[in-house]
Structures are given as C-alpha cells and as structure tokens.
Amino acid sequence: MVHELIAHCITLEDREERNKCAAAIVSVMRTLVPGSKEMVDHEEKLWGHLHVMSNWQLDIDAPFPPPAKPDQDPGPDRLTYTQIGKRPSFYGRIVEDLIVKAKDMPEGEERAALAMMIANLLKRQYLTWNKGAVEDPLIRAQLREMSDGKLDVPAEVDLVSSSEVLKSKRKTSNNFRNHRGGGKRKR
Fold it and tell me: CB neighbours (10 Å) of residue 144?
C-alpha cells in the first residue's frame, strides 16, 4: 500500500502537491508503525525510508536530507575477528595462555606438572559445559592437539575423576542456591 502511494507521489507534476503527498505518506507510515514515536529520531528515519522506498526518485522539499545511496555509502569497515584456533569454545582463552606458557618451558618436572594441571583443568571445563562423564584419552588427545603435540600426560597417570568433579560441581551449585538467593527467602 505505501509503495503504491509513493509510486503515485512520484508521478505528480506539481511540486507543492508532491510535498503534501509525501507528508501524508509519512503520516501513514507513522500510524502503521506505532512504536516509531519512541525512537529518538523517528521523523528523520520515516523521511529517510520514504526516500529509500522511492529509490531516491522523489523530488520533494523534505525536512531532512535524504540518506546516502548504497553506492555512495560503503558502510562500516569489516570487523576482524581473532582466530580462536582449534580449541572447543568451552575451554576458554586462559587455557590457551597456559598451554603457550607450558610449551615455552624447558622439559622437566615443572613442565610435566603444569601439563597435568592443564589436563585436569580441561577435564573440569569439559564436565562443566557437557553432561555426563568424559574419558581421559579424549582429554589427553585434546591437550596434545591444542599444544601442537608438545604437551602430553602419560597414560599411566590418572586425571581427576569425573565423579569427583561432578560431585564438587553439585556441591558448589547447591551452596550458591542456598546462600545467594536461589532458594527460599527468610523474612
């Protein structure tokens, strides 16, 4: 309907008639979009939409300048996104930073201990964001993959047990619910 009104407005010869018709069309648009009055610059947007819908063919004396044509306005620059890498998203940036630090360390007990701590952290993170248990070989494989094969936890070394992580997770969430307003309020 509005497009038809705009098409009619474009065909009007008299500039005064076109201006009156354009103002009437904006009034109709205002009633069709009742929430537009709450927008900060709703009048300017309505007049801009009028120009866009007419494909900039409407020659009128509008209270606001017409918006730039798409070929004249290239728009904002593309955002550059950081490359997250191969890690699953639930491990987080801190784990990546720890792996980089561990890879830079010289071979030895400290590096092996840090690799073990990272593997346990991976397991905790995995269990926090995924339901059920996770097998240690999967965690070891993900640690190897994330460290480009430089960090490894021997198969004979046990990681923290899934049941222990899940039990502590339940205890923490229950404590939070009981002490932080998640449960019933006392009056």
Answer: 16
